[in-house]
Specification:
Length: 462
Amino acid sequence: MGCSGKEIATFFRVVLLLMAAVQTTALHGGVKLKKKEHQNAYATMMYMGTPRDYEFYVATRVLIRSLVRLQVDADVIVIASFDVPLRWVRAMEEEDGAKVVRVENINNPYKGQENFDKRFKLTLNKLYAWSLVDYDRVVMLDADNLFLQKTDELFQCGQFCAVFINPCIFHTGLFVLQPSLAVFKDMIHQLEHGQENPDGADQGFIGGYFPDLLDQPMFYPPLNDTKLNGQYRLPMGYQMDASYYYLRLCWRVPCGPNSVITFPGAPWLKPWYWWSWPVLPLGIQWHENRLQTLGYAAEMPIVIIQSIIFLGIIVMTRLARPSISKLCYRHSDKSTSLMQTGLKFIAIWSILAAYIVPFIMIPRTIHPLVGWTLYFLGSIALSSIAVNSFLLPVIPVFVPLVGIFGSLLVMACPWYPNGVIRALAVFGYAFCYAPIAWGSIVKFMSKLQVSLEREQFYPKIG
């Protein structure tokens, strides 16, 4: 029997009402957990829609496992939007031990601002932390936090506590809060009615919601384990900005325990990227943490396949020694001149591609030692194609690769007394290497021209 138009319309009306009820519950009635095991919680968030979704997924899993490894006396919560893939949710729940709360993305009313950065479009999902009313206290975290030790004493802090890594602005990469539906609903109300937000992200909104935190006392955990009331500033040891480390190459944060490192700098130099070390020395510490917790099983099959491909290219170019000259024939001086110009252009771009393509191909979150090894292997493999195809000299082609390797050694040296000396050493190396690089370019171009003008490069027909 068929369904009437009225019945179909009723069915869709019911579905829409159910969807509206779910969204209303998420935004105004708090979020529900599957099973509460502790009185307090560490929480982080995940959402989709950036070019770096997978990298932040890996970083979130490392953060979860780091907290579990430290045996924190708290649940670990991930506030995940509904568009986060189910396989990622299952991995965080079943393999990492987190409790995942699925939520609707909070609409960002500031996305039309002139200074708005699109990568912060969904960071207001962090406000859901106030809806975790099953817990007494929640420590809200960004995925780029690196824990050096347990910080459960933070659960003794008041209704809101945060660190000022900037003299006047507290950082929302880690803060303590007391969940409250009243506060959560008021925040949503403020969003809907246009509370001023200088950056359009969670940082600006939460900073504007708690404008008087700078005037509050410093947090020191009571010895009798009681919970404090009110707002407090947290010591900087709970959010040690990585940029402070690079000046002295050691931690000298006198206020509070040196517990958590944060990496609020350039997005493409986050510690999980393989190229971030040794450019930024602390990157290797994050990867050591990952090695001890999550490991690299997800990326290793790709690494093995790419290594085999690169080694195969090296062997094949060595055995076959292909030459584009065999495809070229001289018909006239004019056509030869045009062909020389075209081949010169192709040869130059082939060398550039040999240095760029491996960088793009390598899994971004692999260990730096593996990443750089694979990069050099890939560059050698692709450069060998150009060397054998255009009859180029080997040494000038590989001089830039040697220069990159030398710069990595200079940056990775562990004996610098401070960051200033390290920076001077890098500049000194670049100054000494520059003439060598220029000489190799000049020699490469002259050899390329000679190679293209050879009689055997353009054999005549007949």
